[in-house]
Every structure is written in C-alpha cells, then in structure tokens.
Amino acid sequence: MSEEKVHTHVFTSESVSEGHPDKVADQISDAILDACLRRDPQAHVACETAVGPDIVINLGEIACQGFEGIDTEAIARRVVKRIGYTVPDEHFAAQTFKYENFLHGQSPDIAQGVNRKSRQKQGAGDQGMMFGYATNETRNFMPAAVVYSHELLKIFARLRRRGGRYNWLRPDAKTQLSVVYENGRPRRIDTVVISQQTTERGATKLNYEEVKRLACDYLSKTGLLDERTRFFVNPTGKFVVGGPCGDSGLTGRKIVVDTYGGMAAHGGGAFSGKDPSKVDRSAAYYARYAAKNIVAAGLADRCQIQVAYAIGVDKPVSFCVKTFGTAHGSVTNAALERMLASGKVFDFRPYALIEDLGLLKPKGWCYEDTAAYGHFGRDLFPWERIDRVEKLKKIFKIG
C-alpha cells in the first residue's frame, strides 16, 4: 500500500506593536469612540487619526450628545503616554506633539439610513461585505502565524514597561512568522523576523541576541521550533528612529494584522474609530463569533463566513460559507448558509448583533483594547464566546 502523499506549504503572517504609527492612530481613534459611547451610547462615530513627527490630527464624522464636553486632545495625549512615547528628543512625545482637530457632524444622508423610529429596524451603516473566520489549529481558534506574532510583541511590550535591564526597548516593533503546514496542519516554524525599536545605546548585538532568546523561550512552548528555524532580529542592523517620527500613521491601515493575518478573506473595511452601527466592524465581529462557534462545535475544522449588507437595509443581503473541505459528517456549506440566514442561532440584523454582543455598552473591555494585537483570539471580547456550540450540535446532529 502506497504512503499517503504529504502536501506542504508555507504561510506567513505579521503583527505590529502598539507603538507602530498606524496602531498609535488606531488606538487614539478607538479611545475617542469609547469616550463618545460613554457619553451617548447611541453616538455615531467615524473618527480618523493621522500621526507624524510631533503631530496628531483628528478628522471624521461624529454625532454624539454632549460631544462638546469631550476633550479629544487630552485623550490623544493620554493614549500616546500610555503607549510609551514620552521622550521629546525622539520628536514624538505625549507632552509636546502639536494637535489639530477637524472632526465634524455626521452626514444627514448616512444618518437617515441608520436611524429608525424602531431601533429593531436599524439599517446597516454602509454597504459592503464582511468576513469571519475560525480554525481549530490553535487553542483560540486562530491561525498560528498571526497569533504567535501578536504574542511575541506583547512579551516585548511587557518587558519594556518593566524597565530595568530592558530599558533599551522602545515602543515601535514588528514581527513576522513563516509556518510550514503539512496536509493543512502547522508542523514547524520556518522563519521568525523581529524588528524591535531600541534606544541608540541599546542597538547592540548582545541585545539582539536577548530578543532572540526571549522569542525562543516563548515559541518553544508551541512545539513548532526546531534546529532549522531561522531568526532575523533587526536585519537592517539598527532600528532606533521609529514610531510616528520614523513614519506617518493612519487609522485603518493594518486590517490584515487586525484580523487573520491573511489566512482568510477580508472585505476591505477597517474597524478602529467606528461605532457598531458601521457593519464594517460589528458584522465582522459577529461573523467571527459565528465561525468560531461552528468550528468549536465540531462542524468543520475551518470556517469562513461572508455576510453582505446594503446601506439602510435592516437585514443582510447574502451569506457565503466556506469550510475548505473540512466539514464533518453530513454538514455542508449550503446547510450552514441556510442556518445563518434563518437567524435562529445567529441574528445578523445590525440591531440584533449589536445587542447580542453588547457593543454599545462594553463590559469588562473597551474599543481601545481592540486596537493593538488583533481584534480576534482574545477571550476578553464577547465575540470570542463559544456559547452556541450545543445548539449547533443539536441542529446538525453532531455527537
């Protein structure tokens, strides 16, 4: 009998730290969103942020009762300070950057499509298609490469804040992992790339070796490291000039980092700075929720859900499910689509999904929390619950 043929491929994902210029912008936008929702849970917010050397600019549309009482400049400075940009000589610091505000009221044309006399009939805030994805290749039902890329950056951020022997670490950083798959399952990590901003005095070979050691300590727990794994730490030789001084940043430019690291499709809409009436954000969260429960219930090893909306319409216009040949038993993509369209397990109407996930009054989390290290895969968020598993098993007769 011939041996089963092994199909091998390499997949790569990256992450960026909270100090990356685009992530600085995302966090400021979401912090302003949080302030608006605390003031007015029915606020409509589309807040953009741009950052550069010694400057932060806000622009976009906001309809919020009491917005005049929200100090957006103070919010921006608080976020930048929390991230760790507090050294004026680096040409971007919380206490010294110039601030400009061009936020204005929401377009009445958009508002009339979203606002309804009956909240249950709330229309989608825009047209478009959103995707949710889950895979059982990791504990948190996320693709391996993007999860481990996020986790490495969180380790470096914790050590940077601790200071002491790691006082040479600075806020800007990027990681990238290439994972070898065999027959669709991760088998080994082929390459690890780490670009970690340091102080001038910290840009030493000894410190780069310490970064590698820290990465090895964490990644060895995955069981995917081996003697062939390659590491590249600050491969240009030096990374001192970083953050908004080294490059400009804009809200919404890291949508692949924010989601599934390129493993799944993306509708193109960014998340940060948008209130949940914008289905770019809320429906993507709900699609992740549904996909994760489908995989956790054992209906498939992988699941991608596409949902589409028309602006002002209170129900989705279409669903498309892909399980990539991993569905179990008699489960089919068409059957999963019918289940989603029925609304009996997951109600994708804008009003219903916002209520289901508690997106207007977050409890135990805030939108600012989502704006670094990915919007998915962290138990903090309500769209990561797996509370529909038993209902799905019953419907699809999975034992």
Description:
This protein has helices spanning 21-39, 72-83, 108-114, 144-162, 205-219, 243-246, 255-258, 279-296, 333-342, 350-357, 367-370, 389-396, and strands at 8-16, 44-52, 55-63, 98-104, 128-135, 169-182, 185-198, 230-233, 249-250, 302-309, 318-322. It is α+β, with helices and mostly antiparallel strands. The strands form three sheets. A four-stranded mixed sheet has the order 1-6-7-8, with helices on one face. Helix 4 packs across helix 5. The longest helix has 19 residues, at 21-39. The chain is flat and about 60 Å long. The model has no long low-confidence stretch (mean pLDDT 94).
Numbering strands along the chain, what is their spatial order in the largest sheet? 1-6-7-8
The biggest beta sheet, please?
A: 4 strands, mixed
Number of helices: 12
Give the SSE string.
EHEEHEHEHEEHEHEHHEEHHHH
Q: What is the C-alpha radius of gyration, as a whole number of Å?
A: 22 Å
